[in-house]
Design goal:
This protein has helices at about 10-20, 65-70, 105-120, 135-140, 175-180, 195-205, 215-220, 250-260, 285-300; strands at about 5, 25, 45-50, 80, 85, 90-95, 125-130, 150-155, 185-190, 225-230, 265-275. It is of the alpha/beta class. The longest helix is centred in the middle third of the chain and has 17 residues, at about 105-120.
Length: about 300
């Protein structure tokens, strides 16, 4: 694949002919802080999937990837909690996938194709939503073809509806769709505090919330693990900028504390979804999302 790193200003006029050649183009002046390793040398890539087409309550998560990038410049690249630095991580921010408007299946296919291209190049992918439905194509690209994958899911919401008002593909059904592929026994959920009676019956009958996190390492061993983080697992007091806020949630420290349980697992891909920056005029939700992403990158690397 041809790879071009362009500054935003110089990219605007010269990218169409490069795109026609099938080149990979990504900006380097507005990337997540310190995630500017040249593509060919990167082990991980970040890319944004700015889609919020099935948001049922408050849309706006399409604005999250750039808001997270902008907020990252208020952070240090060094994490005192982990004694690690983003400068030492071979990771490349590849910008956002270009999406058409309206046709959900085409959009999901575009996200999967983009992620699959990175996977084919030997990269691991961190997707930045967007709403939670983007997890389905990201999961399929990173883990769908691997043997015996597992899903670790942090969220306020179960996302286990079989359909949402007749829609099989929705932010409210995304984990159910993945469970259809890998089996509910391979889904491990934490932080869930909202859902229908049917969803909680499904949780009970499939024990998706039964595994203590400290047992994940011994249960999953070296199996491929995909980790999806819906930021609304955080309490709205800490994280009001989201589409479907749900009181009674985790603190920032509880969330990043959980990352110790995915450290050492064979994480083949992950995503961070559901920041909706414009519902938080203080901007703290974007800053929180940025810091969560920094801690996650440093933990999985
Ligand atoms: Mn949620």
């Amino acid at each position: 694949m041809e790879v071009f790193q362009l500054r935003y200003n110089e990219g605007l006029f010269c990218t169409p002919h490069l795109r026609q050649r099938g080149a990979l183009i990504y900006p380097v002046s507005n990337c997540f802080i310190a995630c500017d390793t040249p593509y060919n040398e990167a082990e991980w890539v970040i890319f944004g999937a700015p889609y919020d087409g099935t948001s049922s309550y408050r849309p706006g998560s399409r604005f999250a990837p750039d808001s997270i990038r902008a907020a990252s410049y208020g952070l240090e690249t060094y994490s005192p909690a982990q004694d690690k630095d983003l400068e030492d991580v071979r990771i490349c921010d590849c910008g956002d996938v270009e999406l058409s408007f309206g046709d959900k299946k085409r959009i999901l296919a575009a996200i999967e194709e983009k992620a699959a291209g990175f996977v084919q190049d030997g990269k691991k992918v961190i997707g930045v939503g967007g709403e939670h439905l983007v997890t389905l194509p990201l999961f399929m690209a990173s883990a769908g073809k691997l043997e015996n994958p597992a899903l670790i899911h942090l969220d306020a919401h179960a996302d286990l509806r079989d359909d949402y008002m007749g829609e099989k593909l929705s932010h409210a059904t995304v984990v159910r769709r993945i469970a259809d592929v890998i089996g509910a026994e391979n889904v491990f959920q934490y932080g869930i505090r909202s859902g229908t009676a049917e969803e909680f019956a499904y949780i009970r009958s499939n024990s998706t919330m039964k595994t203590p996190p400290e047992k994940l390492k011994s249960i999953l061993k070296d199996r491929p693990v995909y980790f999806t983080l819906d930021l609304d697992v955080l309490d709205p007091a800490f994280f009001p900028g989201t589409g479907t806020p749900e009181p009674g949630g985790w603190s920032f420290s509880e969330l990043v504390g959980f990352f110790q349980f995915i450290s050492g697992l064979n994480v083949v891909g992950c995503d961070v979804v559901e920041l909706s920056p414009h519902y938080d005029h203080s901007g703290v939700s974007s800053i929180t999302a940025s810091k969560v992403l920094r801690e996650l990158i440093l933990k999985v690397f």
